[in-house]
């Protein structure tokens, strides 16, 4: 981390995190499983179809401004969708529906799902829509798909998410836009000239996309720094955690564990085969960085935050019976999910703490039952604050209305293949990565249940929705 | 050896801790023996006023800091939630008998703070909550200031509002710190400066954001975090990794450069002085003394400056203006308490009837404080206007950046505008602000009582109709009360609550609680025509009319009354109130009180109403009001009316001073009569009501304090003099006569 560039990048990071979907990914059945499951519990619900993840892929996640810099969002989405088609060979007419997530919308392709699907070779008879829910947009895409299948409306749904932070829409000022729009309606030359004569230098000041939470005007990094301080998370702890993330990601990358990555031949450039943000550093080097948000005494730096990333991901969801009928060996069941939301100011990044116990209770499981935890790492400080909150009786009693704490997940089961801090965080594409990592990890470890959690910006929703989802490894 | 030394030092401090903890003024903490020898001493205030005792103990601790080799720096912080130090102990100043004694106090304060300023070991002030007066002076004597960016953190020198000046080096340090113009602004207005603004001005060096919930409550953890950050900086200052020097902006550098030129400085003094003279009419000595003191320091040097500060502080403290303002301050504190206790049921949903100027104003100050508010009117047009007024009121706060647009929207979501009585079954209180007509009031009372729940309070916002008369048609008169707001509601601080014989204690408790929640200063008076405030105003306005009839023109009357200290001229006041309203009230009160409320001819008002000269709202009254025109001109249409009602002037009572006294004595006499009749329960409430509701000159402290300082006997003599000319309107009431006969009797002891 050279301290020159990254802090600036962090400032332009669009801070959109607040709802924490927590996915539960379980395994259960013996049908396709060689490993003997630990528990007999299947989590199958009577009257509800079992829904499975057949396969999932993502293009490599790159730091913004690198190889994907000249592309458009739908190009990345197209690559991920094509990768999914190639890997699964699913006949395109079988796909009933496509749902895609995105956060910073490219106005030319506002329904990016449809544009990407057409370009990726899906049938033009397959409808597609785009969803947005800040950093959990692809989680929202997946649960939308789950809902469609569960309701019996579809059998096969493709879900995914894309984000291109290399290029974001920058608008003319409102005054300028108003003048330009009025100009369209001006009929005579006189009218036009009189309109043009009203333009003042300040009309040319561009409007950058919001770098702050709309309701509180606070940037995400700033909020993370305050959260870390509230839970007394030190700079040292944060740097250590960030280093762990990078080290584990490097190990996973080198060990060929990141099975969801598909290569992407970028037009005019070389084929991209792996994530480029993984850079294990040293504590000394990380310690040299200055705080990026709360200056000069804060603890969140460029090195212990996730960076601006370009990327896209996609998963293939089916009802279990359809998958089996088509001869697929599904990777996991998607089970319960919960969305919650909290106060957007002081608890913006505390979603996983609220969501995790809820989804466990819904499924009738405890923390001890979970074999793999995949939490979205927006900031090291945010992850550590959540772990402390989950481990605090005081917090559980005073803020969550619980008698006692849920307990923090054991680190040996937690983000063991790296996380958003090291792999990158293309907002809307992260959800699918979390689910696929969980599925692959469960299979490798012979585990049965996995839990996915993430936070997202917003706060405009006060009422609780949280998402968590369960699947099981075949 | 290190361990031994540490033990020794700890023990030394520990004994000090125990000593001071008994007094509950300080806790001294020795937090961080980090690594080897780096110690930051934390000095935690347990009280929020600077008293003599605190000063001496504090000096002891500072001495220990300087003497002890191991201590490298210190942090000053308060353990009192919501305040750093909220100022000097006012009792301590009031207890002084002479100006020399007060000057002595000031000198002690100056010395103590100078010692901190000159300390070779850096001292950091960690500020959360109010940092006022002496508290701010203490903070700016430190080498570094860190403040929490919370709404409750405010810095100010409110001394001027008490007729004083910052007497512990503030007048000398502030100009150096923030520049001359900004320092004058801070000291002459006494206004509150929020932390972020203070940072921009250079008054504080670092800001700390308040924290949300963590493993402790947000408040507790925020203070702890502030302390941690302050310790970091204290350590940094001591080992020179942090510099206390502030980088000044270009503007400030330029200003400082300009202010270094004596000629420029003289011009600034002159401009500020002229402005002050114009605004205070020479009635308030404190602002001029502040300018003089600052001047002494800048032009004649350090010693002269500090000497002038303590001397002037002493002189100001014994002025009657200062005593009057201090009395108002104490009265305000008194009127911010609910003497009826906590109501049985907290008011959460409030309904306001009538979306006019008053109704919408009441809705605004209620919804603003988190009350769920229904605003009901009978016509869509009126309702729209009212809702727009609330929006505009809140939006102006957004423009001033004291509210975000998100907060505004979320506040407004608690406001429901409607034309029917839907939802009234959930209302805890209904305040009616419909037209001032007893029949309409009766009609809405009956309508409302048919839909509200049993516990709901019915309050009437009327300025003159007796509440018992309104309550006459009520099925539950114990739940009926008067709440008299003043226009414009969002700016006027006073709320006059009127109880009838039948009003229950709990109803009163509810009304006061709502008023306090709305941020009002509340006085509670007994029912009667005109209650207290309107009743006092009545005779004075009648006298204004007589003076007009005697040939004094409106501009002259305004000049005479503002010269006496009224913020608004007497003729302008009538325009503001509305001539129709004044006529209405004068007629009602005239019927109730008879001859005593006579004087000017009410027919003059009636003719004005007939001609449409209703005052500001109609664009024409005594003056002509035009949008965007600042210097309004006298309405020439009035000449004919005034000529028609012309009375011969009586030269023996028509000097400027006599005119002033004719207005004021009638006001004061009526106020005393309210106390005599038991309408008022105390002189304090009378003073507060007159100053905050009617603009009685604050430098006089209210009618009762004015009697005390002017002398009841002298006042009665004046009344007798005018009585001889005009008759019974000036007959002094029995209470005043009692006080006049016994010079030791005072309304305020």
Automatic annotation (TrEMBL), chain A:
Every Thiolase C-terminal domain range: 328-462
Metabolic or biological pathway, per its Swiss-Prot or TrEMBL entry: Lipid metabolism; fatty acid beta-oxidation
CDD domains: thiolase
Domain of life, source organism: Eukaryota
GO CC annotations on file: endoplasmic reticulum; mitochondrial fatty acid beta-oxidation multienzyme complex; mitochondrial inner membrane; mitochondrial outer membrane
Pfam families: Thiolase_C, Thiolase_N
Main location: endoplasmic reticulum
Protein role: Mitochondrial trifunctional enzyme catalyzes the last three of the four reactions of the mitochondrial beta-oxidation pathway. The mitochondrial beta-oxidation pathway is the major energy-producing process in tissues and is performed through four consecutive reactions breaking down fatty acids into acetyl-CoA. Among the enzymes involved in this pathway, the trifunctional enzyme exhibits specificity for long-chain fatty acids.
Name of this chain's protein: Trifunctional enzyme subunit beta, mitochondrial
Organism: Bubo bubo
Species classification: Eukaryota, Metazoa, Chordata, Craniata, Vertebrata
TrEMBL record, chain B:
Catalytic activity: (3S)-hydroxytetradecanoyl-CoA + NAD(+) = 3-oxotetradecanoyl-CoA + NADH + H(+); a long-chain (3S)-3-hydroxy fatty acyl-CoA + NAD(+) = a long-chain 3-oxo-fatty acyl-CoA + NADH + H(+); (3S)-hydroxyoctanoyl-CoA = (2E)-octenoyl-CoA + H2O; 1'-[1,2-di-(9Z,12Z-octadecadienoyl)-sn-glycero-3-phospho]-3'-[1-(9Z,12Z-octadecadienoyl)-sn-glycero-3-phospho]-glycerol + (9Z)-octadecenoyl-CoA = 1'-[1,2-di-(9Z,12Z-octadecadienoyl)-sn-glycero-3-phospho]-3'-[1-(9Z,12Z-octadecadienoyl)-2-(9Z-octadecenoyl)-sn-glycero-3-phospho]-glycerol + CoA
A GO biological-process term: fatty acid beta-oxidation
NCBIfam families per the UniProt record, alphabetical: fa_ox_alpha_mit
Record-marked site positions (Important for hydroxyacyl-coenzyme A dehydrogenase activity): 484
UniProt xrefs under PANTHER family: TRIFUNCTIONAL ENZYME SUBUNIT ALPHA (PTHR43612), TRIFUNCTIONAL ENZYME SUBUNIT ALPHA, MITOCHONDRIAL (PTHR43612:SF3)
Residue ranges of every copy of the 3-hydroxyacyl-CoA dehydrogenase C-terminal domain listed in the record: 530-625
Family: In the N-terminal section; belongs to the enoyl-CoA hydratase/isomerase family. In the central section; belongs to the 3-hydroxyacyl-CoA dehydrogenase family.
Subunit structure: Heterotetramer of 2 alpha/HADHA and 2 beta/HADHB subunits; forms the mitochondrial trifunctional enzyme. Also purified as higher order heterooligomers including a 4 alpha/HADHA and 4 beta/HADHB heterooligomer which physiological significance remains unclear. The mitochondrial trifunctional enzyme interacts with MTLN.
Active site: 496
Top-level taxonomy: Eukaryota, Metazoa, Chordata, Craniata, Vertebrata
Protein's recorded name: Trifunctional enzyme subunit alpha, mitochondrial
Annotated EC: 1.1.1.211, 4.2.1.17
Positions bearing the site annotation: Important for long-chain enoyl-CoA hydratase activity: 137, 159
Functional pathway: Lipid metabolism; fatty acid beta-oxidation
Originating organism: Bubo bubo
One term of GO molecular function: NAD+ binding
InterPro entries: 3-OHacyl-CoA_DH_CS, 3-OHacyl-CoA_DH_NAD-bd, 3HC_DH_C, 6-PGluconate_DH-like_C_sf, ClpP/crotonase-like_dom_sf, Enoyl-CoA_hyd/isom_CS, Enoyl-CoA_hydra/iso, Fa_ox_alpha_mit
Domain 3-hydroxyacyl-CoA dehydrogenase NAD binding: 350-527
Compartments it resides in: Mitochondrion inner membrane
Keywords, ordered alphabetically: Acetylation, Fatty acid metabolism, Lipid metabolism, Lyase, Membrane, Methylation, Mitochondrion, Mitochondrion inner membrane, Multifunctional enzyme, NAD, Oxidoreductase, Phosphoprotein, Transferase, Transit peptide
Pfam families in the record: 3HCDH (PF00725), 3HCDH_N (PF02737), ECH_1 (PF00378)
Single GO cellular component term: mitochondrial fatty acid beta-oxidation multienzyme complex
């Amino acid at each position: 981390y050279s301290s020159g560039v990254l802090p600036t990048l962090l400032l332009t990071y669009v801070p959109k995190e607040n709802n924490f979907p927590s996915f539960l990914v379980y395994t259960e059945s013996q049908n396709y499983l060689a490993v003997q499951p630990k528990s007999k519990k299947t989590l199958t619900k009577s009257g509800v179809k079992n829904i499975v993840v057949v396969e999932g892929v993502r293009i490599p996640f790159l730091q913004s401004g690198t190889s994907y810099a000249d592309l458009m969002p739908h190009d990345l989405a197209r690559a991920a969708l094509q990768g999914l088609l190639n890997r699964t060979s699913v006949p395109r007419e079988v796909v009933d529906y496509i749902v895609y997530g995105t956060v910073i919308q490219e106005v030319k392709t506002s329904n990016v799902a449809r544009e990407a699907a057409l370009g990726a070779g899906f049938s033009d008879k397959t409808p597609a829509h785009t969803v947005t829910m800040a950093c959990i947009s692809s989680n929202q895409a997946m649960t939308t798909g789950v809902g469609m299948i569960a309701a019996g409306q579809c059998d096969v749904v493709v879900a995914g998410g894309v984000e291109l932070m290399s290029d974001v829409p920058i608008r003319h000022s409102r005054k300028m836009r108003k003048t330009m729009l009025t100009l369209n309606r001006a009929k005579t030359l006189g009218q036009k000239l009189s309109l043009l004569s009203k333009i003042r230098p300040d009309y040319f000041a561009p409007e950058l996309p919001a770098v702050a939470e709309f309701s509180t005007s606070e940037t995400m990094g700033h909020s993370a720094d305050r959260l870390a301080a509230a839970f007394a998370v030190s700079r040292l702890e944060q740097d250590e955690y960030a280093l762990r993330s990078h080290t584990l990601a490097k190990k996973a990358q080198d060990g060929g564990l990141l099975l969801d990555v598909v290569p992407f031949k970028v037009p005019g450039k070389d084929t991209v085969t792996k994530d480029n943000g993984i850079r294990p550093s040293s504590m000394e080097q990380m310690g040299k960085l200055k705080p990026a948000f709360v200056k000069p005494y804060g603890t969140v730096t460029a090195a212990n935050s996730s960076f601006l990333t370009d990327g896209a991901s996609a998963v293939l969801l089916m009802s279990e019976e359809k998958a089996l009928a088509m001869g697929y060996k599904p990777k996991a069941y998607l089970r319960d999910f919960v969305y919650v939301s909290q106060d957007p100011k002081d608890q913006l990044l505390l979603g996983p703490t609220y969501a995790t116990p809820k989804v466990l209770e819904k499924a009738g499981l405890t923390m001890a039952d979970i074999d793999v935890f995949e939490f979205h790492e927006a900031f090291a400080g945010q992850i550590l604050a959540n772990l402390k909150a989950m481990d605090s009786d005081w917090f559980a009693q005073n803020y969550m209305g619980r008698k006692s704490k849920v307990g923090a997940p054991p680190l040996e089961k937690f983000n063991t293949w790296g996380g958003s801090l090291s792999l990158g965080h293309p907002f809307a594409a992260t959800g699918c990565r979390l689910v696929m990592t969980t599925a692959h990890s469960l299979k490798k470890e012979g585990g049965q249940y996995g839990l996915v959690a993430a936070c997202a910006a917003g706060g405009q929703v006060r009422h609780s929705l949280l998402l968590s989802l369960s699947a099981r490894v075949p | 050896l290190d361990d031994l030394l540490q033990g020794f030092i700890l023990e030394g401090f520990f004994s000090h801790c125990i000593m001071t903890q008994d007094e509950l003024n300080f806790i001294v903490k020795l937090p961080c023996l980090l690594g080897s020898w780096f110690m930051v001493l934390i000095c935690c205030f347990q009280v929020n006023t600077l008293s003599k005792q605190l000063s001496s103990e504090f000096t002891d601790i500072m001495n220990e800091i300087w003497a002890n080799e191991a201590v490298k720096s210190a942090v000053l912080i308060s353990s009192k939630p919501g305040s750093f130090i909220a100022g000097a102990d006012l009792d301590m100043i009031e207890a002084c008998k002479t100006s020399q004694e007060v000057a002595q106090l000031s000198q002690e304060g100056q010395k103590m703070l100078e010692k901190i300023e000159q300390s070779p070991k850096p001292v950091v002030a960690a500020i959360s909550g109010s940092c006022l007066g002496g508290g701010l002076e203490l903070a700016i004597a430190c080498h570094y200031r860190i403040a929490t960016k919370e709404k409750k953190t405010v810095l100010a020198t409110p001394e001027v509002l008490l007729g004083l000046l910052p007497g512990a080096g503030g007048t000398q340090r502030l100009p150096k710190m923030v520049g001359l113009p900004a320092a004058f602004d801070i000291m002459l207005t006494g206004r509150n400066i929020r932390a972020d603004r203070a940072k921009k001005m250079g008054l504080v060096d670092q800001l700390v954001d308040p924290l949300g919930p963590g493993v402790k409550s947000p408040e507790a953890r925020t203070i702890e975090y502030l302390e941690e950050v302050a310790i970091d900086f204290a350590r940094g200052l001591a080992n020179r990794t942090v510099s206390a020097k502030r980088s000044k902006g270009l503007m400030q550098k330029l200003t400082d450069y300009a202010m270094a030129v004596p000629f420029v400085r003289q011009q600034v003094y002159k401009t500020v002085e002229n402005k002050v003279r114009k605004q205070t009419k020479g009635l308030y000595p404190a602002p001029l003394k502040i300018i003089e003191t600052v001047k002494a320091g800048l032009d004649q040097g350090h010693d002269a400056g500090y000497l002038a500060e303590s001397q002037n502080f002493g002189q100001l403290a014994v002025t009657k203006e200062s005593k009057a303002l201090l009395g108002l301050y104490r009265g305000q504190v008194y009127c911010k308490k609910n003497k009826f206790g906590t109501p049985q049921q907290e008011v959460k949903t409030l309904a306001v009837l009538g979306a006019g100027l008053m109704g919408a104003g009441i809705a605004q100050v209620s919804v603003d404080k988190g009350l769920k508010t229904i605003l009901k009117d009978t016509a869509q047009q009126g309702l729209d206007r009212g809702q727009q007024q609330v929006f505009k009121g809140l939006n102006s706060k957004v423009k001033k950046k004291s509210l975000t647009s998100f907060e505004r929207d979320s506040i407004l979501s608690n406001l429901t505008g409607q034309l029917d009585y839907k939802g009234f079954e959930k209302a805890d209180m209904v305040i009616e602000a419909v037209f001032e007509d007893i029949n309409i009031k009766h009609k809405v009372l009956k309508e409302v009582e048919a839909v509200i729940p049993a516990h709901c309070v019915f309050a009437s916002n009327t300025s003159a109709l007796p509440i018992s008369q309104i309550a006459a048609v009520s099925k539950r008169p114990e739940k009926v009360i008067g709440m008299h707001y003043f226009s414009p509601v969002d700016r006027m601080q006073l709320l006059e609550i009127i109880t009838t014989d039948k009003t229950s204690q709990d109803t009163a408790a509810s009304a006061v609680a709502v008023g306090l929640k709305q941020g009002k200063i509340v006085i509670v008076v007994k029912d009667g025509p005109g209650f207290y405030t309107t009743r006092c105003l009545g005779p004075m306005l009648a006298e204004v009319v007589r003076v007009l009839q005697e040939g004094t023109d409106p501009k002259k009357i305004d000049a005479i009354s503002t010269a006496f200290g009224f913020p608004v001229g007497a003729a302008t006041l009538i325009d503001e109130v509305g001539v129709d309203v004044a006529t209405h009230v004068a007629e009602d009160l005239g019927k109730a009180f008879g001859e005593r409320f006579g004087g000017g001819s009410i027919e003059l008002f009636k003719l004005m109403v007939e001609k449409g000269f209703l005052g500001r709202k109609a664009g024409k009254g005594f003056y002509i009001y035009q949008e965007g025109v600042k210097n309004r001109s006298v309405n020439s249409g009035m000449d004919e009316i005034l000529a028609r009602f012309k009375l011969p002037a009586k030269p023996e009572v028509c000097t400027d001073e006599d005119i002033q006294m004719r207005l004021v004595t009638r006001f004061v006499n009526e106020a005393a009569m309210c106390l005599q009749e038991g309408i008022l329960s105390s002189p304090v409430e009378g003073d507060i009501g007159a100053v905050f509701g009617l603009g009685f000159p604050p430098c006089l402290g209210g009618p009762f304090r004015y009697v005390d300082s002017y002398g009841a006997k002298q006042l009665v003599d004046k009344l007798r003099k005018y009585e001889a000319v005009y008759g019974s309107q000036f007959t002094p009431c029995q209470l005043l006569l009692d006080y006049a006969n016994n010079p030791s009797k005072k309304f305020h002891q």
